[in-house]
Amino acid sequence: MPTYHKVRWSLLAFSFLTLLATIREWFLSPASGMIVVIECLAGIALIFAPDMIRKVLHLYFPKATIYFYWFFLFMSVFLGSCLHLMDLIPFWDKILHGTSPMLLSMIGYGIITNGLQQVPTKNIPVWVFLLFGFGFAGICGIFWEFWEFTCDTFDNLNLQRYQTLAGLPYVGRAALMDTMGDLAVNTIGAILIAIYSYIQAHGSGDYFIIYRVIKSKHGKPENDDYLAL
Hints:
Helix content: 55-70%
Strand content: under 5%
Number of helices: 9
Strand order of the largest sheet: 1-2
């Protein structure tokens, strides 16, 4: 069995065990437990997102990007939300805000290499890829904060931690600390992956080909990074 399928089945096995735990929680606390079960089911569906994108949109992501996507899914949905590490570990949310821009930067590299595939990558300065990946991760982080703000506005979910668990609103700068902290950590994560990519590139834009998103309606791309999908 190819490594891709082994990793996916391992994640699926863990996700179904997590689902059993959330169903148990549902019986013990019907109101909050139902939400956790829905989150877990959504997480299981998201495991197959790369395959659905490939079948519907004919877009092929490299294995490295998909593995990192699954890792983030494991950390955020199954450990963070369903098994409540988000509540048990105060800085868990910041860990996710630090890793998500790394994944988004990789996707950003894939987008720009696909858009510039008619141009030899060795002729493209490394900073072009780094700037696009950094910008893509940054704007996605901003839109995520917009999403949290919208949820807090219409459903009072306190995603932006503008009030205490007891419902007492924070005042002044204290109300901004969570949002600004998320954006700061998001920026740090994007900078770290940019530094790593800069070192790995050795001054050549050819390095970023490994992140390329390929659109193909005629079967799998002839590249080892995609064949195992």
